[in-house]
# Entry
Amino acid sequence: MRPGGPLADLRMVELAGEQGQWCGRLLADLGADVVKVEPPGGAPERRVGPWYRDEPHPDRSLSFWHYNSGKRAITVDIESAEGAAVLRRLVAGADVFLEARPPGRLAALGLGPDELRGADPRLIYCSLTPFGQDGPWRDFQTTDLVQLAAGGQMAQCGYDEEDDPDAPPIAPGGGNAWHIGCHFALVAISAAIVYRDMSGEGQHLDVSIHEACSLTTESAIPTYFSTGRVVRRQTGRHSAWSMPRPRTQYLCKDGTYINAMFNQRISPERVRIFAEWMDEYGAADDLLDERYRDAQVVEESQEHIADVLHAFFPQITAEEACRGAQERGLPWGAVRSVDEILADPHWEDRGYWVDVEHPELDDSFRYPGIWGLYSDSPLAITRRAPLVGEHTAEVLAEIGLDAGEIESLREGGAI
# Structure
């Protein structure tokens, strides 16, 4: 078994902020030594709540804890000549540099890809930006919501016309656009590492969050290219060009919901399976009739089948519905709240939750965490998120600065 994770021999310098911090967190989980570079006083993402014990403080942001566990942190004023020189020296000893500054900003400081890769051709320089390094939108201002709107996600999320004819589009949960961009950056970096291992050459990666979001609208764009049809949002289920598809969320006996997926492709055999189950409760209606052995009849009876299910589920709890369906090979699941998720033994059995020590608080906290099980190089959350500037002296000493040089930089405000 290889200690330290599959990327234990990799060092990444992260200058990414809110847009790119999740990519750094994933690389840290994989074992990379991720050094987060922040301005003196701490990065803006430290000012995002909620807060530990409701105490606003740059070292108490629960959001920051989640997105930055496993990293080390240094504070450097890269706008100063001395600070820029420090960053240049730090990156010179790294494998990957992840940055999310506006296009051209780092180049103006002498920290662009041409300068840094010129000094080290093996460097993988990843620029993760809202709209890419060029094009008419490259300098547009943005937020997570803007990205989800412009990428196409919001157009597909919300209520359909049957439920609310005037309902606006609805964004998915906060941070989704940043997560999408970070996942694609992780893929790009991983592929570039493999390429460098084979060729000996690094490269500049221009990752656009806008393009990543557009790609993950799933079938919307290919559907339009192929058929000219625009997919429409549908309440609680996937968007589609055909309207409306049968609803999939049903209220159960305990006041919670079951997500019971079926559509026009459901087979007569599947209808028979859940009809026999429903018949145990006297709720099968006419679904055991021989005519439902005909696939065409099943396709034409979607709304009726949905109505029968709607009458059935209030007789059992969502958990009973989920277990009963799964036993019969039906891909249905309970719609769970956070407290129900935390109580499910499946997560514990998989070792998903991780207790992370916070020695400065003399306490430990449970994190969501082990998202992939590696048989020979297990990933891990190795440490809690860093305090402001916690590793500045340590990291600068690693790149060859002595105590006097570090103190001089501190006195000059460069670190």
The CA atoms of residues 405 and 411 lie 10 Å apart. The two ends are 39 Å apart (CA to CA). The first strand starts at residue 11 and ends at 15. The longest helix spans residues 176-199.
